Amino acid sequence: MSDLSTANSPDALIDPQFRKQTNKRLTWLRILWWATGLLAILSVIRAVTGVDNLSSAGTVAAALGLAVPIGMAGLGGLWSERAGVVNIGLEGMLILGTFGAGWAGYQWGPWAGLAAAIAFGALGGLIHAVATVTFAVDQIVVGVAINILAIGITQFLAAEWFQGASGGGSTQSPPIAPIGTVTLPGISSVAQTISETDIFFVSDLAGLIAGLTTNVSYITLIAVFAVVATGFILWRTAFGLRLRSCGEAPYAAATLGVPVRTYKYIAVIMSGALAGLGGAYLAIVAAGIYREGQTGGRGYIGLAAMIFGNWRPGGLMAGAALFGYTDALQLRGGEAVHALLLLLAVLLAAYGGYMLYRRRLRGGAISLLIAAGVLSWYLTTTDVPPQFAFIAPYLATLLVLAFATQRLRMPAADGQPYLKGEEH
Length: 424
Description:
By secondary structure, this protein is mainly α. The chain has 18 helices and 2 strands.
């Protein structure tokens, strides 16, 4: 390829310095190294506190389930924002997904519910795309409107369609049949046995494996495939490169023949479909029923996970796993949340030391100060208030976002309206 053809490709639209930074991606070896280190810290905390629930197979399985709807909402946000469209309406699309799953699921089975959830979420994405891409309405305003509209529409339709149905009512659908699970034979049972031996690190690793290989829902497998497919499509195909160019320099991309509006439409509709998939998990797997208010703000947390992950699939899922894990711990009881204080203090101290090593004195000092406060709280109490157990996942998310802001880099044209025919 000549230098001229390279310069006229959408890849040339991305800032060279940004490309230099993003080429320093986490290798699988580095990811494995960090995961091993975190698991070792967790093993130490478990040994010190005596709280086995920190790394049990049940906690891991619960964390995985709680991370799926957050991760799918965040993945939807990634598609949309990589094309330059902010999607605050993910919460509403998640709600539409739960309703679609309940409406079709109780009548025609869980697979029909899954398809309806994706379709309902995609419909929300289409509405968002029409308003923001075609008519250039403010993207934040449209997103908030979709969230409000989704609540009102689902409340109205639930009262119309579910009232009087067997097991249904004005705020919930009739029960949905289970969709089925997968267990890896041999590996699951062996890992479960080893996890009960109370061997340092080994039992914790076995608990992790058991939780990830036992009774895993089909929707969870689809969600994992969606994450892998997103990474491949957006960063390994010409289609993904063009889509990302729409979020970096849409006017320049248009001069190279990229149909910017078409790509934005595809991205925002896909965003809604993925959020609908997350809603399907909540209704079909987590609850077995559609219930009003069951999303619990997970669409907004998905956006936070996306930002934490620096608009990349791997980091996004790490953020979703963080929230899912802390949420799972508060479901395991007060002792587990109390042990979470010690874990949080250790991680903050480690991060503070790293910041000082990088000569970021202010951030390191603040991190160490917070770590000392959390450690003092842990040492002076034997339990935590129930209110803290409830807000622990949200607090963890805020802390992570606060400390991660220095390395974040959103798409250059994210949130900016694209007006065809204008030059910027």
